[in-house]
Structures are given as structure tokens and as C-alpha cells.
Amino acid sequence: MAETGQHEQRYEHYEGGSPEAERLVFDRLARELMEVQVKNRRAGGGGTARAIHAKAPLGVENARLRFHDDLPAALRVGFARPGADYPVTLRLSNASGIRQGDGAPDLRGAALRVRVSDEESHDLLATSYPVSHARDAREFVAFAKAMAGARNPLQKAFGLLVKLPLAVGFETATRMRRNVQAATRQTVTSLATQTYWSRGAMLWGEAGPVRYLLRPAAGTPPAPPPDRRDPDFLHHELARRLASADVSFELCVQRYVDELRTPVEDTSVEWKDAVSPPIAVARLTVPSQDVDEAEARAAARRVEDLVFNPWYTTDDFRPLGNLNRARKAAYQASGAHRLGLRFVTEEPLRNRIIGRPVGAVLTRLNRYVPWHRLPLQLSLLNLVFLRKVLRRFNLIDTEVREAPPKAQPVPRPIEERLRTERSYDGSYNDLSEPRMGAVGAAFGRNLKPDYRPDQFDTPNPVTVSRQLLRRDSFLPATSLNVLAAAWIQFQVHDWVNHRRYPAGGPSVEVPLPPGSDPWYNTPGGSAENVMRFTDNEGLEQPGNRPSILFGNMASHWWDGSEVYGGDEETARFLREPDGGAKLRLEDGHLPGAQNGVPLTGFNESWWMGLSAMHTLFAREHNAVCDALRAEYPSMREERIYHTARLVVSALIAKIHTVEWTPAILATKAIDIGLKTNWQGPPRNWLNQLGLWLLEAHSLQGIPRTVPDHHGTPYSLTEDFVTVYRMHPLVPDDFELREHHFGQRLETVGFMDIQGGAAESQIRKTGLVNALYSFGIAHPGAITLHNYPRALQQFERDGEIIDLSVVDLVRTRRRGVPRYNDFREGLHKQRIRSFEELTQSTESLARLKEVYRSVDEIDTVVGLFAENPPTGFGFSDTAFRIFILMATRRLQSDRFLTVDYRPEVYTPLGIDWVEKGGMDSVILRHCPELAALLPRDSSAFAPWRAVRPTDDGNDHDSGGNGEPG
Predict the structure, then answer these.
(1) Region Disordered: what ranges (predicted)?
(2) I want to staple 11 with a disulfide (CB 3.0 to 4.6 A). Which of 73, 103, 264, 930 is the partner?
(3) Coil vs helix vs strand at 5
């Protein structure tokens, strides 16, 4: 039994043996409580309420708590000082999660927020019975689920007598039922005459654990018999009482005696007065007032919007015990769901019932026939269930979470602008968990890490690169153009960026294999027998765990950070001066920096293809700004900027989803599946019926749904980074042509159009001619023996690197499983021989020469070697990461789901995204290319090439000098 801390050592024991294990349980229970809220909302016929204590007969902001002058010395801790007087927000409530008449059998509750200062407050929660029906959080949530949606006596009896025993067992259910019946048996005539017990313990500084209670102050008059026909008689009784006099309660504490008679972990055991007599410490007073006048009603509404949580306190007064430890996550989730900051996506019962046997049949079928060889409708169904399996087993949260829970101040209100603007660093996309997916958040995992330092250099990465990756001769991907290669780099720069140590910091050394030529690690440096490059900077983890947790220096969201930057300083610097909404451009091109590389959100690994993409979308942002300014003349520049950023980011996400991906995975099933992600399924009865029966959530496009993280906080993953290593797409040389007559301008190598040379070249060639040249040229195929030679001796930040070796080393050192384990973890059968991986005789021979067994094959090598499905530009194993993460990047994002709406984007903005695509972006800024774009496929397919006229003018020359 793991125990930590002075007081926890004496009183607390963590479920599962550790705070971390217990936290996972509590996170699941918190999600289940949100599902209870959904059922109660349906039964109550109103909006989402608190999971419990939904109805409040009284909410006031002007109560006072004054500690007694004779407060015992042992209890003088923190804010508990003799004579200290504090303002209190008070909420008195009925305990049911359904708003119902006050005469229904029920418990009552009190929630206090004692405000000590702007930085310190203490939430105290109590209920009108001395013990809880539940020993711990599991029992509490089981009871809430059993009673969810129960309004009438028959539904409640079914919950207590059938559902509860099935959840917790007959004996436990009997005890819980007796407690509840005893607690709700009494007739309540006034909330002012009730006593409220904390039931769970809290720390009271050095005095140790206490339970507290609020009891009516001496002399509190009884209430007259209520009018049972009035569903709000408790409110009306309090209104009459407060109209003529104050209402007061005595705050008392009961001190811990021993674990048997005053247990901390078991909230179903009463701390009896005879064992621990209540000690009066303070008086709570609600001053006389008219609670029905306008100002008081407004205050009551503000109280209803509050989220009370016993963990909003200080360390000296933190809650104790299992049920209390669970309350932090549970109340935060419940409150966020109620306030529209966190969401629940229910799976219909029919989908769960029908899905199990269908999923089992498909799993068995896939042992013999892979999904891509099935008939179209069956392959689509197969993909639906494959994604379900991956969501269940292949989303791993790596972020270091708080465990055990810690006391904290009440969270600051969310800035209103963050509800309608993307933040600069990705924070506040999920308003209930502001740091989720923000810059610096950890990369997650799709597979459990396999960290093997003894295998870092086995086999030697340089040998692997030379034998299996190096481009022998260019192998083209004939269904694509080079814009597809530029696009994916443009996207990856928005998605992922591991922080590297600065030059001179910790580095990785890779020994050269015997017989190799020496390597020069820096320009002008001396020859060495090792390759050396800067290491990644990892995040600290508890318990001396290996350094394989890394923060993403880009935000994890699809927010256009490669264009706009990942922090406010960069974003404002890239804008026009004096707070203008547009991005800075010089004659239609990106402004340059001293090193020749332009100023933009992310400009590492810069080359002419990236420049074309960045220039296009900077122009697109400015075009959206112009349109917004014309359509909404009163809109402020700041709002125009942020709205245009939303529009361009969503358009980029749409282009990638419905154009780039179907281009590189050119099959009918993928085309339908990806368009379904964005716009919903084809409107035919078979598709509609199939999804209604098996996956109703997909009956509409993701932008018409609410955010869903599928049980794991959102992040991009190390495995995602691995499968997007697509450097073979980049050719080593390029032929630049002009678009009017197809004449060749010049032939350049990759090194001639990268780094600082890229901008001078694109300005010389012109954006129109650059796009045309890339549109008619093929990228490389993503396969073995096709890694660009230019990237195998590449200068970056003052060091010369072989990027293929870096790819291999990074993947090993980050603990990404080797290929065979990788594919098994993604629910594919392991390969037993090299022959199962590839049909290429040459590749087979080299694989056997480099690796001792199939289990040693590097992930990147295996993904390149694997025979892809027909039409696919990369392997089926890599595709499994894609099918999981592609929908997740849309589904988790508030601005691509619940806030993808005209109120946030403006009607013009929504229309711009819905009607837009890569063709519209190109033609808006380069209309001269209209006749050259493909007619029946995306802009990432080969364009129509203009045949050069036979006049001898096919020659090397400068560009036409046109700025566009």
C-alpha cells in the first residue's frame, strides 16, 4: 500500500497502490459522472445541471463567516483565527441530480465559498445526513449511474433494486439503500433548520483530520407546515424567513480519534458525537434580505454558474479520503460539462449491441483478408471498426499529471476573447483543461514505449541508411506532384517540433561503420569517425524514468502556427505595423530576414516548395481580411485578424482532409471515408442505415459534432511523428518552367533552392511559374532506396547532418517500438520472415544483410519496405496511425467542431471554408493557372503540362520577373 506525506502516512491509502493508479480510476469515474448528467438532463427536460445537487432554493453572495473569539488554540490554523470575519458565497440545494419538486424525498446540501483574499478561498461542502451512502468514489458513482434519469417511484425502485446490486453486489447495495432511505425519510420544512455534515474528512493543519458540520444556530424558529402543492416551497419559506430576520448556522468540527471509530477513507461510517464531540468554531450568517428582488436574483444566477470543489482551498485544509480525492476530478469535469466547456458523446445502445458481434466477425475476417481487399461497403465498415479498436487500445496519455490531487485557488474566469479566438500558443482550445495541446505539452503515444539503450546502435544506423535508404536512382510517385511533398512539410511544421539543445549542448554520437569515409560534422570542420548532432531536450519525469518524454514546441492543434507563429510576440511581429489585421508581405512575397530565410511562423528546413506554400497562405489570410473588412465595416482589426486566422486554419485542415490525403491514399474507400469526416456520409440509404446501426456518430461531418477526446487528453504522438517521416517525397533536382509556353527556365538541385537561396529563387522564377513547375513534376515514392541524397549531407544550424540517420536514431531513442512490434501493436499480424515484408529481390537481400532477424528491423525501414495497398502512397501499418489520428485532430478541436459556426467564424468565414479548397486558393492568387489545374482530381495530382513550342527557345534563363 503506497503512502506519501506526513498526514497521508497516518490516514490515507491509495486505491491501486499508488496515487497515479488511483488517478486513472478517478478520471474514468469523472467521465461516467458526465454521462449521468446527460441522462439527468433528458429526464429533467432542461439544460445540463450538476450531477448532484441540481436545484438550489437559495444562492447568496453576501453571507458572512465569523470565527469565535474563544476558538480553541489547537484549531487556530491558517484563516481560522479568533474573531476573523470573511465574506461567504452560500448555496443551499436539493441533492438530486434532477430538478424536481421540493416535496420529493431527498437529501439537502450546503456549499460555502469562504473568501479570505483575492488569492485564497475555501470551499466547504456538506449534506443533510451524517454519513454517505457510499464508502468510496466507486460506490458513489455506481449509485449515481443506477439512479440517473430516475424521476418516478418505479424508475427509482428499479435503480435501487436491480441496477445498483448488479453494479456493486447485493450486500453493498443493501447497505447503500438503507442509508439512503434513512437519510430521505425525514420531512424537510425549511433548509434553515437542517444540519449539514461534511461526511468526508479534511485536514485542519496540525490539528489533523476533522469532519465538519453546519447546524442551525440556537433559537432558529421552526418552519410552518409547507404547501406541498408548491414545487418551490423551500425557496419561498427561506424568502419569508430572510425578509424579517437573519438566518444563522454554527460551524462545528469533529476531531479524528482513531481509524476504527473515526475512519478517513470510509465515508459510510459516522463519526459519532459521543466519540468525537462537535466543537463550535464559527458562525455563518445570511443577512436579512429580499431574495426575490432583481439584484438578489442576479446574484443567485451567478452562484449557479460557480463550480464548488473542496480542493479549492490551501494545503492546510485539503480534503482527505478516497471519496474526497475523487471529488477534484469529478467536480471539475461535472462543472465544465454543465458550463459547456467539456462534452460527452454518447454511443447509442444499438451501436454497442450490434457492434460487438459485427466487430468480432470483421476481426476474424481480417486474419485472412485485409480490409483493403474487401468490397467497397465492407471495407468502409471495416475501417469504422478498426478505428474503434485503435481508439480503445492505442491512445496513451504521457503528460505528467497531478497525483495525488493538490489544493489550489479557484480558477480565474476564462477571458471572453478566448471563447472565440485561437490563442497564440494553443492553450484554451479545451476550455476545461487550458494547457491541453498547447506549446510545450508532451507528445502522447499510440504504443507503449520500448526503450532499449543497448540497441541504440544495433544495427549501425549509418549502415542502415547507406544500404536501405539512400537513393540509388529517383523513383517517382506518378500519381502526385511535388506540391504534395511541399504540402506535407508545410503541415508537419504546424504539427510537431521537438526542442533541440542549442549548439554546443548535449549531442548524440553515431560511430561510423568500419571502412566508411570520414564525416565532417561542421562546415569547414575536421574529419571524424563519428556522426554528431544535437540531442533532443526531454521533459523531466518522476521516478528516474528514461528521458523519452518530450514537449512539442509547436501546438498540437491544427492552428496554422507555421504561418502565424506559436507565441504572441511572433504573431504580432508578422502582422502589418500599428496592429493591422494583415500579414506583412513585400510585393506579394514573405519579408526577408538577414540570413535570407523569410519571416514566417516556422522557417526551419526552408526550401522553395515551402516558400510557395507559405506565400500562398499568407496571401490567403490577407484576402480573407479584405473580405471581412468589406462585409463587416465595423469589425475591429483585432477581430478581423483572429477571424481570418480561424478561417485559414480551418481551410488548411479541410484541404488536408479531403484533398491531400485522398490524393496520396488514392482509393475509393479512403476518398469516401475522408469526405465523410468533413461533410458527412454519401446520401444513400445503405450508408445511412449502416452508420445508424453501427456508428451513428458518423452520420454527420465532424464539424457538426462536439469535441470528443475518446477518453484520453488530446495530443499528437511520437508514433504519429514516425509515420510522417516522408522525406523520400523530395526530389534531388527540379526543372523550373514558365507556364505560358512550357519553356524550361533552368534546372536546379535541391541545395540551390533551400535555405537562404529559396527566396531569391522564387522571386526570380515567380510564384506562378514555381507552382506550375512543381505541379507538373512528380515527387519521390515513399519506399526504400529513395531517400534524397541532398538530405544525407544537409547543413542545419551550423552542423552537417545525414537526415536519414537522424530519423533512425531519433526513433530508436524516443522508444518507438521496432517495426514488427509496431505493427503488432496496431493489430496486424507479425511478420515471420523477410519475404513477408517485401517482394523486391534487391531489398530482400539487403534487409537480410543488415538485420539479424525481422524483429530487429527499424520502424522507418519497415514502413518504407512494406508493400502498400493498391493506390496507397504509404504502408497500411502507417495508415493505421493515420486513421486514428486524422479524425482525432478534427474531433478534439473546439474550433473544428462545436465552435465551427457562423457566430464565431462569421457567416462569410464559414462560407469561405465550405466553398474553398486548394484550387480556389491557387486561383485566387494565381488566376493564370486556371487551365492547367487537373479537372477531375485535386491540385496535388499532376497538372496539365504545356508543350514547349518548337522554336528553339527551350533554354536556361531567368524568370519573367512577375511578382505573382
Answers:
(1) 945-964
(2) 264
(3) coil
403 within domain boundaries: no
931-935 contacts, C-beta under 8 A, 24 or more apart: 932/739, 932/772, 932/775, 933/775
pLDDT band with cut points at 50, 70 and 90 for residue 950: low
Q: Contacts from 700-705 at CB under 8 Å and sequence distance 24+?
A: 701/676, 701/677, 702/677, 702/678, 702/887, 702/890, 702/891, 702/896, 702/897, 703/678, 703/890, 703/896, 703/897, 703/900, 704/680, 704/897, 704/900, 705/345, 705/891, 705/897, 705/898
Residue 494 in contact with residue 558, Cβ under 8 Å?
yes
Range of the domain at 203: 6-338
Cell of 702: 465532424
Q: What's the pLDDT score for residue 114?
A: 98
Which of 133, 493, 621, 739 is catalytic? The answer is 493
DSSP string, 42-94: HHHTSS---SS----SEEEEEEEEEE-TT--GGG--TT--TT-EEEEEEEEEE
Same domain for 332 and 440? no
Give residue-wise pLDDT tens across range 584-631.
999 999 998 878 899 999 999 999 999 999 999 999 999 999 999 999
Same domain, 746 and 861: yes
CB-CB contact of 287 with 63 (8 Å): yes
From residue 221, how far is each of 126, 216, 224, 238 by CA, in Å? 22, 9, 9, 12
Model confidence at 959, in pLDDT bands (50, 70, 90)? very low
Provide the pLDDT confidence category of residue 66 given band limits of 50, 70 and 90. Answer: very high
Q: What is the CATH number of the domain that holds 801?
A: 1.10.640.10
The secondary structure element, H or E, covering residue 821 is: helix 819-825
Q: Would you say 727 and 807 are in contact if contact means Cβ atoms under 8 Å apart?
A: yes
Task: Provide the grid cell at 130.
Answer: 451524517
439 and 324, same domain (yes or no): no
373/678 Cα distance (integer angstroms): 25
589 included as an active-site residue: no
Measuring CA to CA, which residue among 775, 713, 757 is closest to residue 611? 757
Q: Which of 338, 372, 397 is the last residue of a domain?
A: 338
Average pLDDT of the chain? Answer: 94
pLDDT at 634: 97
Report the domain count for the chain. 2
Rounded-to-integer distance, Cα 372 and Cα 685, Å: 23
Per residue in 724-754, pLDDT (tens digit) is 999 999 999 999 999 999 999 999 999 999 9
